[in-house]
Design a protein that fits this description.
single chain, four-stranded antiparallel sheet, globular, 4 helices
């Protein structure tokens, strides 16, 4: 759009949720104030505050898993259980905290481990608890 900088790279965190209000703004359409969302209009790009936390959620595809079980009855139940779970995540610029529907927690320091290969939950329990609190608070805001 003419009122933005073409090809400008933003190193701050943005969310997929931000796409909708940003598109509305670009089209000069006002977003209704009763929309309950943490999304923000990203325009103007300069001199603005971006997200401190980004949230994500994954819900397992139960129907697909059940079809797979039917087609592959010899596969152990433990394999299905390992992957057939929901995930909720909060991400900061430097860390990602994930909690699964089975209660398993994971914490990754993205600067040192961008591929998320070393879970550091046990070494950084206080940080994990802090991010868990942020995630729980965000989830409650949608109740």
């Amino acid at each position: 759009p003419e009122h933005t900088s073409a090809g400008k790279k933003i190193s701050s965190m943005v969310s997929n949720l931000d796409v909708f209000p940003t598109l509305l703004s670009t089209l000069s359409i006002e977003m209704k104030s009763n929309c309950k969302t943490s999304a923000v209009n990203l325009i103007p790009l300069e001199n603005r505050i971006y997200h401190k936390h980004i949230f994500a959620e994954y819900t397992p595809a139960y129907a697909d898993i059940n079809d797979f079980k039917r087609l592959c009855p010899d596969i152990e139940q433990a394999i299905f259980d390992r992957y057939n779970k929901g995930l909720k995540c909060v991400r900061t610029k430097d860390s990602k905290y994930i909690i699964a529907s089975d209660g398993k927690e994971e914490l990754y320091h993205l600067k040192d481990d961008p591929d998320e290969t070393k879970d550091v939950t046990d070494e950084f329990r206080e940080e994990a608890e802090e991010l868990k609190s942020v995630l729980v608070s965000e989830l409650k805001s949608f109740d």
